[in-house]
Amino acid sequence: MASAPAVTALKPIPRVPGLPLIGNLLSLTGDPVRFFVACYRKFGPACEIKVLNQRYVLLGGVEAANLLGSRVGKDCLRSRQFWEGLLTEYGASRALVSEDGESHKELRDIMRRGYSRESIRGRYGEFVRILDEVYARDWKPGARVPVVQAMQYMAVGTLGPFLTGATPVEYIRDIRIAILYILNVLVTRQRPRFFLWAPEYRRARARVVELGHTMIAAASERVGTVKDEDKNLIDDIMAAHVRDPKVLPTNDLIVAVTGPYVAGLDTVANTTAVTIYMVLKHPEVRARIEQEVDALFDAGPVDEDELMNRLPAINGAIMESMRLYPIAVAQIRTVVQDFEFQGYPIRKGDMLYVSAVVPHFMDEYFPDAAKFDIDRYQKPRAEHMQPGAYSPYGRGPHTCLGKSLAEVQLALSMARLFYKYDLELDPPDYVLKTKTAPTPGPAMDFKVRVKGLRH
Ligand code: HEM
């Protein structure tokens, strides 16, 4: 664990060899998580990497995961500098992801209810109906379905009605392009700034701003007319804006209201796409899942309190997919105060990659870690419960605010898909290819074939 600031006579941080000029850029863009695990194995929990001449300190392992949630982590690490470019680009003064301390807490409190499982309480039946409608578009008998794309449609189609009251599927491409450029150019800085002049980004940016304006206009009309219990995330954001425009000024609204699509689109699409692949690759898992989902849906309306307990195989498959293919491979932070980390000096001004998912790939925490084993999470094994071992939703103050909602969305969407459809990989011996941008996940050309309907 990290301890209080006192940074003298400590071990020098080992440097990871890289190429002239670009440093470790290729490893970082090629297969970042494999690179992080290799660095941890060779150099330990802290090492120095270079990306285009910029020095970063890479922290990994359970040590790094635990740092994020610790007092030292809260006092010494900040997100702002990495998100500054996004704020400037959209004319905003602050956003949930860019803030820390009191400012972050203030925004998180405004958005907590809207992003949580509360937003679908009492509406699981409606959620399943929407899923059926959304799936009916792409998943037709005989169809060869591009899975990531279909799951992006599902993510927006199911989040929209509950979080924002709008389902802007026609903006999906724009949101993805905007995320891609923002992450590559403004946040991780793996691409130079002039990339932002690319016409495809300018168009996508303009469309996202247009979407934001449309959402704000619709929500403004609802202000004062919606009962408290019917308010969604956007209503809560607009109410906070009206109550005190200093807390959420007009300029901050675009980023705030489009946030759920940015946060929920690729995360959910990539995770569900991997889950589909993994289940279809493992017939014994698929058989258990089919049995489980048939029992769930054949018994009538879904019991909200019991849902997660009734889907151990589905949840095990989702958790394994998030372990082996995490969508956030590192949190990036700057250091505002010197501190000691595992005997290494971390200095004010250092830029950090903090990879809390390194333990996902370590046999020490997940025996036979490369194996897709959906029973790891059941007691008494409960391998994910070891401190710092399992962090697909991040760690510390910025831990995924949508986690409780995402868990239900992932479980229901996968349960319903395997209940309704008989699927096979296309071709049947397909081996998953992956992409790393905008977020790590299956390649866009990953397809499955709908052999027929099960129900
Ligand atoms: C597979 C599903 C998901 C995964 C694996 C995931 C993962 C993450 C991770 C790792 C972070 C932390 C990033 C950091 O510390 O810098 C995060 C933040 C966040 N996520 Fe998720 N997420 C998922 C789905 C969702 C959904 C469906 C929503 C809501 C629509 C959502 C909303 C958020 C928000 C608002 C934040 C920012 C929290 C903050 O900065 O305080 N996420 N997510």
Strand segment tally: 12
Q: In CATH terms, what is the fold-level topology?
A: Cytochrome p450
CATH architecture label name: Orthogonal Bundle
Low-confidence stretches are none
What descriptors fit this protein?
binds protoporphyrin IX containing FE; 455 residues; single chain; 3-stranded antiparallel beta sheet; alpha+beta; 5-stranded mixed beta sheet; Cytochrome p450; 12 strands; 15 helices
Which helices and strands, and how do they pair?
Layout (H helix, E strand, L loop, with lengths): L24 H6 L1 H12 L2 E6 L2 E7 H9 L1 H6 E2 L1 H10 L11 H15 L8 H15 L5 E3 H18 L7 H16 L11 H24 L10 H11 L9 H29 L1 H16 L13 H13 L6 E5 L3 E3 L2 E3 L4 E5 L47 H18 E5 L8 E2 L5 E2 L4 E7 L2
Parallel strand pairs: 2-8
Antiparallel strand pairs: 1-2, 3-5, 4-12, 5-8, 6-7, 9-12, 10-11
The protein binds protoporphyrin IX containing FE.
The site of protoporphyrin IX containing FE has 28 residues, from helix 6, helix 8, helix 12 and helix 15.
What do these coordinates show?
With 455 residues, the chain is an alpha+beta fold. It has one domain (25-453): Cytochrome P450 (Cytochrome p450). It is built from 15 helices and twelve strands. The strands form four sheets. It has a five-stranded mixed sheet. It has a three-stranded antiparallel sheet with strand order 4-12-9. The protein has a two-stranded antiparallel ribbon with strand order 6-7. Helix 7 crosses helix 15 (403-420) and helix 13 (283-298) packs across helix 15 (403-420). The longest helix is centred in the middle third of the chain and has 29 residues, at 253-281. It is globular, with a radius of gyration of 22 Å. The N and C termini lie far apart (52 Å). Bound molecules: protoporphyrin IX containing FE. Protoporphyrin IX containing FE is lined by residues 96-97, 108, 115, 159, 163, 259-260, 263-264, 267-268, 271, 322, 327-328, 331, 392-394, 398, 400-402, 405-406, 409-410.
